[in-house]
Design goal:
heterodimer, A: 346 residues, alpha/beta, Rossmann fold, Alpha-Beta Plaits, 2 domains, six-stranded mixed beta sheet, 13 helices, 24% strand, B: 288 residues, mainly alpha, two-stranded antiparallel ribbon, 11 helices, 2 strands, globular
Chain lengths: 346, 288
């Protein structure tokens, strides 16, 4: 399939100054649910063809933001423009230009894969003459063409997610929203889904906006915004963010972790933590620090490893806690918010 | 809230056209039919109940209500329009309330984020439910001969038209209920507090004559009463029973002694249906 079948896409609205239209432009967006401020004033802009990741623990405000961008939830204040249209003032224009893959499945279990896609095509006005070609194209991409006439109820979780991705692309959206596209999937299926997403970026001119709380997945994004308690705490390319941490992670194994921590504090003024017998701390220029460490620690070191900062370290630097701790404290409280109830029937 | 939409207008070809809405209506309607024909078990099981009512309850009650004077009018002929209304009632409500399942399993969201007005989706759902309920009623109609109701084309046509109108009004009512239902479990509540009372008070299984005052009032408050009576009148016009029987079994609906004409009864059902539809559309169009 060399020439992709394209759906004639609705044009994006041109900005008054004639500059390039950001795929997404958010200014000081807020969403309050009574006392709780789920989204507390966020601003960012996503360029066309960019893959932009929203990274944060469960309950940080990721899904609320995505719901506002998709016109499903009304912002309390601030503005959101998608493909050049205001999400509040012109929701229909926005909807025509976006594709959505939700956290929870939104397929009709009693219909076949193809029937689900046909339903979607008709709902979005994909011209009848190209529907069948387009369905074949997207189903082939997610390797479900063989299963096209099977009832969706018989699909595994990973297959359903793939079908949803295919459906989200069917009407050639300008912006594809992926809300936790790999949540609840096994590692193998997760890496498969990512292979499809990369393939998709190669084939289609599309902007991808995704949320995730998997640090390793955020690495695939061109840019990331780290969100915590409804605020963007850091934004940039994964490399920029990691560089901004400015320190490498050093882990050492010794016979006496307590003594090592004490020695680090007294001789190097470094605060370290211990877990599973590994003493971990952060220093700028980790590799250069290792010789000093051996010379000056005074506690025998059995092994040492130096690592560049990960997005986990980035999160830690900007929020003071790990994403895992953040999830433990926030729990799933956000999931019982009104907008979720309204659509999921809680 | 947010300002400045001005510069973007006019770039795209007309927004929110009726053509788009029509597409929404059609696709939702089609899905109802697709699901109906797919679940043959549902078709069969929803026939079981009316068949039980007609042939077991109807046959069992027959000796009690024989008109005497050697007439052998079949009580089941009386029950037939009621049982058809019952089929339509249950199928329509079930079809409408499936929205709650769609919400539970997420599919509702796929529809709600589409570039189609909510009103179009609701209308599609109502038409789909109405079509399915009418089809189910038509299947029951096939049994007419077994209870001495003639297969007269005009009678069948009248009944189908009345069923379709009833089915539409009931689906709209069901969709309205579903808009307020947050969980699948509420379906039981709908059955116990809406559907069954509506069925029993409608005159589907017993005649509306010689009722105690309180019950008479309740039956007149039941909207389904105004759907059952036109069907019964249509049937009785073709079976021409003895006058004494006609008086007891087909008394029509009276408001303080005045017997309502069929046209008014039909109009009541139609107006209620439209009201339900409008309210349901408003419910679903509310922004979050």
């Amino acid at each position: 399939m060399s020439v992709p079948v394209g759906v004639a896409r609705p044009e994006v609205a041109a900005p008054p100054d004639g500059g390039p239209v950001p795929a997404i432009e958010v200014r000081d967006l807020h969403k309050r649910y009574g006392e709780l401020e789920a989204v507390a004033g966020i601003s960012f802009s996503v360029a066309p063809r960019e893959t932009f990741g929203f990274l944060g623990p469960n309950g940080a405000g990721k899904s609320t933001t995505i719901s506002m961008l998709c016109t499903l939830v009304r912002p309390s204040s601030g503005s959101a423009r998608v493909a050049g249209f205001d999400a509040v003032a012109a929701p229909a224009e926005v909807r025509r230009r976006i594709g959505l893959v939700f956290q929870d499945t939104t397929l009709d279990d009693y219909l076949t894969a193809k029937e689900n896609l046909r339903f979607h095509a008709e709902l979005y006005g994909v011209p009848g003459s190209i529907v069948e070609d387009r369905i074949r194209q997207v189903l082939t991409m997610v390797e479900l063409w063989d299963r096209r006439d099977h009832i969706v109820r018989t699909f595994s979780g990973g297959m359903k997610r793939r079908l949803e991705i295919a459906r989200g692309l069917l009407h050639s959206p300008r912006v594809l929203f992926l809300d936790e596209p790999t949540i609840g999937l096994d590692p193998q299926t997760r890496s498969h889904i990512w292979a499809y997403i990369r393939e998709l970026k190669r084939r289609e001119e599309i902007t991808i906006f995704m949320t995730t709380h998997y640090m390793d997945e955020a690495e695939f994004c061109d840019r990331i915004a780290i969100i915590d308690h409804g605020r963007v705490v850091a934004m940039g390319t994964p490399e920029e963010l990691k560089a901004s941490v400015g320190r490498d992670r050093v882990q050492i194994r010794t016979d006496d972790a307590e003594a090592a921590i004490l020695a680090l504090r007294e001789r190097f003024e470094i605060e370290a933590t211990v877990s599973e017998e590994m003493v971990t701390f952060h220093v700028p220029g980790g590799e250069q620090f290792v010789p000093q460490l051996f010379a000056g620690l005074g506690v025998p070191i059995r092994s040492v490893s130096v690592a560049r900062p990960t997005l986990d370290d980035v999160f830690m630097t900007y929020t003071g806690r790990t994403i895992r701790d953040a999830e433990a404290s926030t729990g799933d409280q956000m999931r019982s918010l009104p907008f979720v109830r309204a659509h999921r029937g809680r | 809230m947010t300002a400045s939409v001005a510069p973007v207008a006019g770039v795209h070809i007309a927004a929110g056209t009726w053509r788009e809405d029509l597409r929404g209506v059609r696709v939702v309607w089609k899905r109802e039919l697709l699901r109906f024909f797919r679940s043959r078990i549902r078709i069969v099981t929803s026939l079981a109940q009316p068949v039980l009512f007609l042939f077991i309850l109807g046959t069992g009650l027959s000796p009690l209500v024989q008109g005497g004077e050697g007439s052998n009018f079949d009580f089941r002929t009386f029950m037939f329009p009621g049982v058809i209304a019952m089929t339509v009632l249950f199928t329509a409500i079930f079809s409408a309330v499936s929205i709650v399942w769609d919400r539970e399993f997420g599919f509702l969201r796929e529809m709600l984020v589409a570039p189609v007005r909510r009103g179009a989706l609701v209308l599609g759902k109502c038409l789909g439910g109405a079509t399915v309920a009418t089809l189910q009623g038509v299947i029951m109609l096939a049994l007419a001969g077994l209870v001495h109701v003639p297969y007269a084309p005009l009678l069948l046509l009248t009944l189908v038209a009345e069923m379709a109108l009833t089915a539409f009004a009931l689906t709209a009512f069901g969709v309205l209920l579903a808009s307020r239902m947050q969980q699948v479990e509420s379906f039981q509540v709908v059955m116990q507090f809406f559907v069954l009372p509506m069925f029993f008070l409608s005159g589907a299984v017993f005649p509306l004559s010689r009722l105690p005052g309180w019950l008479q009032v309740l039956t007149r408050l039941d909207p389904l009463t105004y759907a059952v009576d036109p069907m019964r009148r249509a049937v009785f016009a073709y079976v021409s029973p003895p006058a004494s029987i006609q008086l007891v079994l087909d008394p029509g609906i009276t408001w303080g002694g005045w017997r309502l004409p069929v046209l008014l009864e039909v109009a009541i059902v139609a107006v209620l249906g439209v009201l339900m539809l409008v309210t349901a559309v408003t419910q679903f169009s509310r922004a979050d």
